[in-house]
Amino acid sequence: MPRTVVADESTPLSKSPFVKKQSAPTKPSDGKHRFPGPGSLDRALSLVRYLRAECPWDSKQTPESLIPHLLEETHEVVDAIREGNVNALERELGDLLLNLAFQIVIAEEAGQLDADSVYGCLETKMIARHPQLFGNGEYQEWETLKATERMADEGVLHGLAKGLDPLTKAYRIQERVAAIGFDWPDHEGAHDKVTEELEEVAEAVQLGSSQSVLEEVGDLLFAVVNLARLTDTHPTTA
């Protein structure tokens, strides 16, 4: 599939010649306010282009100003999933789709990327990580494949999202180092480590050192997250 944009640090994205020029947004004339497009994502993008052209609030938004809304809508999607509320999930996924469409359209306006280039990245990544489905490769663990990609770049922790909550960050670090062979053989080793760290927390509390307590509690939390991972439990849902 042809890629719409391929840019690197040496090519200013705002000057990329690969991004498709979009036609001026127009208001739907069908009386039902249904925006044009061959698929739902295309219609969402058409809707946002129109909002950006006609609404003062929408037109002044930036990728950074929309971050709080993106985070809030993501949390609301998670809440709907956990509650098992299908009606709420439908609404919240729509809100999340709107936020994703905003990010694409704003970057599109700047000549940085478009929906085709975003999908191109997704497709390329999924093909590379499923060699057993696309080609003659054998099945490999997801994290092992990703670790190979990272080691070719800047290291096993390269690209770890800065905005992750502490428990998820610890979980992802452990997944990544496990993919290169640094791991307990089973959950028993992780369980013993939790016991060890708990004893060290008790010792630090008895010594009355706030700094030591802080450090040991951190070690304990990290060990508990590792135990959760090795027992197929995510710490944020425990």
Q: Estimate percent helicity.
A: 55-70%
How many alpha or pi helices?
Answer: 9
Distance between the termini: 41 Å
CATH class of the largest domain: Mainly Alpha
Gyration radius, in Å: 23 Å
What's the CATH H-level superfamily name of the largest domain? MazG-like
- Strand fraction: under 5%
Description:
- This protein has 238 residues and is mostly helical.
- It folds into two domains: 91 residues, Helix Hairpins, CATH 1.10.287; 96 residues, Helix Hairpins, CATH 1.10.287.
- Helices cover 59% and strands 0% of the residues.
- The protein has nine helices and no strands.
- The longest helix has 24 residues.
Record keyword descriptors for this entry.
Helix Hairpins, disordered N terminus, 0% strand, 59% helix, 238 residues, 2 domains, elongated, mainly alpha
Secondary structure elements and pairings:
Elements: H1 40-54, H2 56-59, H3 67-83, H4 86-109, H5 115-128, H6 142-151, H7 166-179, H8 187-207, H9 210-230
Helix pairs in contact: 1-4, 3-4, 6-7, 7-9, 8-9
Pfam families: MazG
InterPro entries: MazG-like_dom, NTP-PPase_MazG-like_C, NTP-PPase_MazG-like_N, NTP_PyrPHydrolase_MazG
GO molecular function, one term: nucleoside triphosphate diphosphatase activity
